[in-house]
Design goal:
globular; 33% helix; 20% strand; 22 strands; alpha/beta; single chain; TIM Barrel; 2 domains; six-stranded parallel beta sheet; nine-stranded mixed beta sheet
């Protein structure tokens, strides 16, 4: 007796092969092809497409793990597995030093009651395992969190002793199933690390067959050199490389994806295992403080926001923030930066900094600095910096998988549409609207290719014995509804999401079943 029998589905198996009609069964959380016999539940899938559940290659789901928002945003668009802990910031390891522990807490922007216990992945995992999960989750260790726990926000190279401490933290994480190490080289304190430091830490990752996932040092003026650096780090260390949310930011740089993709193809030709992930939007999202120069963060979270109240400090920062390689310039000015979260200044939300400044009759720089002094690191924004041509070129590349980079903190807080719409938009935009990829090719980028590149041996393909993480959808109706003004809208066309053989989403709502688990990496 099977647990579920899916009859007459159009199957896209995740390999990129053409769709075919088949019956598929589920037994004890595993798939059975061409089944014979009865089942507890029979699903008539006529008119529906069955594919593997989507794998989010770039998730920050660890920051919202177990929450309703965290479950709904990904599950409603068909995600059944998330790779999390990206961009160098993870919720472990915390230092035993209270001062450094407090620094990481402030960077994370929240109070974590058991932070003193999360000194390593082994001690963090009981909390992870206890959270209700509608999707599976795999975890990286964040270079920024490691550096804070050893060095705070020190703007210097580590001593030999400090480097060994950091390597020990990475080794412990790898031994307990981390995917690898992530870095966020535009964020403090990761941006203070030189190439040699990253190589030494990645050598530990390489011992376990893990991946170095990097938010590169630049995605704008220095994007080509940043790709070269990422490749050098992986090549010198002997580890796999994933370039996170690859993009070309800033009108002055549009078109450089031709060069960056050439570098990636050349690296793969000489044996470097390089993958890149991307999301299908031309605007990014991160903290509003990302407009500030990186060295300003060395003051520490508290002091830097206090300093921004000083007119003399503001006067010094203005020309630097308007410079050739600044986020402000890449957005075309304050009109290209949309405030999404400002807890202490709600009147600014869903307005550009330029519009908000005009509304309060203030200079845009002063409006921005006031937003920072009032909201600190809690303020978030959307940055309009990319071109459709680069986006299309990157997503269509054979080495690109799909990752949302999306975080939905709560169902009443504005968010980038990628949190609710990445995977359905990728199908709607690249397959149906533009005709740049077939449905089979796009689903391959969301399932089988991701599983292959990141070592998820039992995920991403519909075949005998594979994990029963599945998605049933209507191919002509699947579409995103989340927008920059309303990032919380549910997608359309998703009929049912199944994880480990259990239905977690149906009829436009979560079922309350939470079979997701932590997936330890085994190199």
């Amino acid at each position: 007796m099977y647990d579920i029998l899916i009859r007459g589905a159009q199957v896209i198996d995740g390999t990129g092969a053409p769709a075919f009609c088949a019956d598929v069964a589920v037994k004890d959380g595993k798939l059975v092809m061409n089944p014979e016999g009865e089942a507890t539940e029979v699903i008539d899938a006529a008119g529906l497409t069955l594919c593997p559940g989507f794998i989010d290659a770039h998730s920050h789901g660890d920051s919202i793990l177990g929450t309703e928002a965290g479950q709904l945003c990904k599950t409603s668009q068909g995600v059944t597995t998330e790779l999390a802990g990206l961009c160098g910031t993870t919720y472990y390891p915390f230092s035993t030093d209270p001062e450094k522990r407090d620094m990481l807490l402030k960077k994370l922007g929240r109070d974590i009651h058991d932070a003193q216990e999360r000194t390593c992945l082994e001690h963090y995992l009981p909390w992870v395992n206890a959270q209700p999960k509608t999707a599976n989750i795999a975890l990286y260790i964040g270079h920024g969190s490691v550096r804070i726990s050893v060095m705070g926000f020190a703007l210097r190279t580590p001593t030999a002793e400090e480097l060994e401490s950091m390597k020990g933290m990475v080794r412990e994480a790898m031994e307990h199933g981390a995917m690898g190490m992530s870095s966020g080289l535009i964020y403090a304190p990761s941006c203070y690390a030189n190439e040699d430091e990253l190589v030494e830490l990645c050598k530990v990752v390489a011992e376990y067959g893990g991946t170095y996932a990097t938010h590169m040092r630049s995605e704008a003026n220095e994007v080509v050199e940043s790709v070269r650096e990422a490749i050098r780090v992986a090549e010198r260390a002997g580890c796999k490389l994933n370039i996170s949310h690859h993009k070309i930011a800033g009108r002055d740089n549009w078109g450089r994806s031709v060069q960056t993709l050439e570098l990636i193809h050349e690296a793969r030709a000489r044996g470097v295992d390089v993958t890149l992930d991307a999301y299908p939007y031309t605007a990014s999202s991160t903290g509003l403080n990302a407009c500030l120069p990186s060295d300003f963060f060395s003051h520490g979270p508290d002091k830097m926001y206090q300093l921004l109240a000083d007119p003399a400090v503001r006067a010094q920062l203005k020309p630097r923030m308007s410079g050739m390689d600044s986020r402000l310039r890449h957005c075309g000015g304050w009109g290209g930066i949309l405030v999404t979260v400002a807890p202490k200044t709600p009147a600014a939300v869903n307005k550009t900094v330029l519009d908000y400044a005009a509304e309060i009759n203030a200079d845009p720089f002063d409006a921005y600095f006031d937003l920072m002094t009032n909201n600190g690191g809690a303020a978030k924004a959307i940055y309009f910096t990319m071109s459709e041509e680069d986006l299309q070129r990157i997503v269509c590349d054979e080495n690109t998988v799909i990752g949302s980079d999306g975080v939905v903190r709560a169902l009443n807080i504005p968010s980038h549409p990628r949190g609710f719409g990445t995977f359905t938009k990728a199908i709607r935009y690249f397959v149906r609207d533009k005709g740049l990829l077939t449905l089979e090719q796009m689903i391959h980028k969301m399932t089988g290719l991701t599983a292959q590149r990141f070592g998820l041996a039992t995920k991403g393909v519909i075949a005998d014995g594979m994990d029963a993480d599945l998605l049933l959808f209507r191919p002509d109706e699947i579409r995103d509804h989340a927008t920059y003004q309303n990032g919380l809208a549910l997608s359309e066309g998703i009929e049912r999401v199944i994880v480990a053989g259990q239905t977690v989403y149906q009829n436009g709502r979560l079922t309350g079943t939470c079979p997701g688990v932590f997936l330890p990496h085994r190199g």
